[in-house]
Write a structure and sequence with these properties.
The complex is a heterodimer of chains A (about 160) and B (about 425).
Chain A lengths: L1 H17 L14 H5 L8 H13 L2 E3 L9 H16 L4 E6 L6 H21 L6 E7 L10 H7 L1 E4 L1
Parallel strand pairs in A: 2-3
Antiparallel strand pairs in A: 1-4, 2-4
Helix pairs in contact in A: 1-3, 1-4, 3-4
Chain B lengths: L1 H8 L13 E4 L5 E5 L12 H11 L3 E3 L17 H6 L4 E9 L5 E9 L4 E10 L4 H17 L8 E7 L8 E7 L6 E6 L3 E6 L5 E6 L6 E6 L5 E3 L7 E6 L5 E6 L6 E6 L5 E3 L7 E6 L5 E6 L6 E6 L5 E3 L7 E6 L5 E8 L2 E8 L5 E3 L7 E5 L5 E8 L2 E8 L5 E4 L5 E7 L5
Parallel strand pairs in B: 2-3, 2-4
Antiparallel strand pairs in B: 1-29, 4-5, 5-6, 7-8, 7-30, 8-9, 10-11, 11-12, 12-13, 14-15, 15-16, 16-17, 18-19, 19-20, 20-21, 22-23, 23-24, 24-25, 26-27, 27-28, 28-29
The chains are: A alpha+beta (about 160), B mainly beta (about 425).
Chain lengths: ~160, ~425
């Protein structure tokens, strides 16, 4: 929850900085409203810092529902902040997909990959052209060791590195 | 090559105390009482053969051995067997025998099985081995006794491999372990700081295929057990998972996502040629060959939730196999080819279930939490699986009629993904 607020505030800050700049970048097709507004270009310097701050505030771990690789609203908002920063300061990234311990191990390996691929596809749809490596660890490397939903919800995740 | 040999030589042979111990949690309703009499000339040997045979038969759940202290006599030859002694103890069978040493310094055990009710000898046999093979000698006795009485081949001489996670970050965190089926004589086939998973046996029992992340990404390897030599079979982008040998060991089914999505492929092991089997945007994973090698069973999310499908390799047409419950995954075919075992979710809890392939009847076999990775014994009478006990990963075993259950708690890390060997020569 705290992350959501951070993301929203950071996005507002970025949008504030960006508004008023002239646009020379092509528009993305089918981008959500928030992204369209954020499409304005970045000149340099402080803007880049603001984009980095927004991306940092968005966090680099994104969570999923059980047996699902659908991006939540919260994740989409966070990925928008990352998209803007990655477009302004391209770098190669690694997306590590994970699953909770329930169910079959190899199936969870595929689930982790589907989750990481969903993040990759979303970033691409926002115009991110960075080299992206997708690796799934399935349920092999949980963030938390517990055996209840509290831990499981922290383990169904994609980490952007 | 030198590295491979060095790795092989550094196989760690662990202490004689097994890392896994056995706790029987549910036995047969009416186990057959049997006496395993201490064998002659076995005092002072590094292994207690009478104790190993007794533990084997007790663990099967079909037998109950009587304690040494209750025996009225301890015969080691036929002429010392007084059936009345055993009738008084209500014992159905008696096993006796004695050890001799051969001129070349090996140990030879002569053993005999008696039916108390009919007062006759059922069987006598001999088994020979080095001092390092005393456990093999004991398991050979267990196999023979089990088969003579039940008509089912014994599995006490078979092996298993499993994965152990020691739980700390470091070079030896994940281990691929080879052990006797009773958990004894473990040796580490491979240790890595990165995950190891999905070990499976070749049908000849000479190789293990598995997945290792040692390059930081998953790849499929085949290890030759006699030499310890490993061969990397795949290195595709994305998933390289769930290897499974064909019945003739010439092909390897697997899951790859190199074409953008998890799909089933079959590789010719000799030529490395790949044949893509499935084509669906859902998850297709966890292949297992049918007993005739003509089709592959696999997990697919194509119907919304994970279910098991079977695809004929000639026609390429998949058919759904499981319909009970909202989650059925990771099929394994029983040795007679007639049933599958799988991970099944019932009311939010993951169990092991079996299904008759002809009738479609499903049966839930386990009642613990987070059960997964079933692996069937080569005699088709039991399966091993992974479960949780007090928050720790342990191995469990259950008979295919769900009547007998035991767990094998680990003294060290989380243990999982057991793979039961075929019968070994």
């Amino acid at each position: 929850m705290l992350n959501t607020f951070k993301t929203v505030f950071a996005l507002i800050a970025v949008l504030g900085l960006l508004s008023g700049c002239s646009s020379s970048k092509k528009k993305q097709e089918a981008a959500p409203p928030a992204a369209t507004t954020a499409e304005a270009p970045v000149s340099a310097g402080t803007n880049l810092d603001a984009l980095k701050a927004a991306a940092d505030a968005a966090g680099n771990v994104f969570y999923f529902e059980f047996d699902s690789f659908v991006l939540t609203e919260q994740t989409r908002a966070a990925l928008l902040a990352h998209s803007e920063y990655l477009k302004a300061a391209p770098r190669s990234i690694r997306l590590e997909g994970h699953a909770d311990e329930r169910g079959s191990r190899e199936y969870n390996m595929a689930l982790g990959e589907k989750r990481a691929a969903a993040v990759k596809d979303f970033l691409a749809s926002q115009g991110v052209s960075s080299a992206v490596e997708v690796v799934s660890f399935g349920e092999e490397q949980p963030a938390e060791k517990g055996h209840s939903e509290t831990s499981w919800s922290k383990n169904r995740r994609v980490e952007l590195k | 090559m030198r590295l491979i040999i060095a790795l092989f030589l550094s196989w760690i042979t662990l202490s004689a105390h097994a890392l896994l111990t056995v706790e029987i949690t549910k036995g047969s309703a009416k186990p057959t009482p049997i006496a395993i009499v201490p064998f002659g000339n076995t005092n002072g040997l590094p292994e207690d053969i009478q104790q190993i045979v007794s533990a084997d038969l007790d663990r099967s759940g079909l037998f109950q051995t009587i304690p040494k202290g209750e025996m009225l006599s301890q015969p080691t030859t036929q002429k010392e067997v007084y059936f009345r002694d055993w009738q008084r103890l209500k014992v159905s069978y008696v096993v006796i025998g004695a050890m001799t040493t051969t001129p070349d310094g090996r140990y030879a055990l002569h053993f005999e099985l008696y039916d108390v009710l009919s007062s006759r000898q059922v069987f006598s046999g001999n088994t020979v081995g080095q001092v390092s093979q005393l456990r093999d000698i004991a398991h050979a006795v267990s196999d023979a006794v089990f088969e003579k009485i039940t008509g089912i081949p014994g599995i006490f001489s078979t092996k298993m491999v499993y994965v152990e996670d020691l739980g700390y970050a470091g070079p030896g965190r994940y281990r691929l372990v080879f052990a006797d089926i009773d958990g004894a004589r473990e040796r580490v086939l491979q240790a890595s700081k990165m995950p190891i998973l999905s070990p499976v046996w070749s049908h000849r029992g000479d190789k293990i295929a598995y997945v290792s992340f040692e390059t930081t990404r998953p790849a499929i390897y085949i290890m030759d057990l006699a030499t310890g030599r490993k061969t990397q079979m795949t290195n595709f982008p994305g998933l390289n998972g769930a290897p499974a040998f064909s019945p003739d060991d010439t092909r390897l089914a697997m899951c790859l996502s190199k074409d953008g999505n998890p799909e089933i492929y079959v590789m010719n092991i000799a030529t490395r040629q790949l044949q893509r089997i499935t084509d669906h945007f859902g998850i297709d994973h966890e292949p297992a060959f049918s007993a005739d090698g003509r089709s592959v069973l696999f997990t697919s999310s194509r119907g919304g939730s994970p279910q098991i499908y079977q695809v004929d390799l000639a026609s390429g047409r998949p058919e759904r196999v499981t319909f009970d419950g909202e989650y059925n995954a990771r099929p394994r075919v029983t040795p007679d080819g007639k049933s599958i075992v799988m991970v099944h979710r019932d009311k939010g809890i993951f169990h092991i279930a079996s299904q008759d392939l002809k009738t479609g009847d499903m049966r839930i076999l386990t009642e613990t939490l987070l059960d997964e990775s079933p692996s069937v014994a080569p005699n088709g009478a039991m399966l091993l699986y992974a479960t949780q006990q007090q928050g720790k990963g342990v191995l469990g075993a259950v008979s295919m009629d769900a009547g007998v259950k035991f767990t094998m708690p680990s003294r060290q890390g989380d243990v999982r993904e057991p793979a039961w060997s075929p019968f070994l020569k």
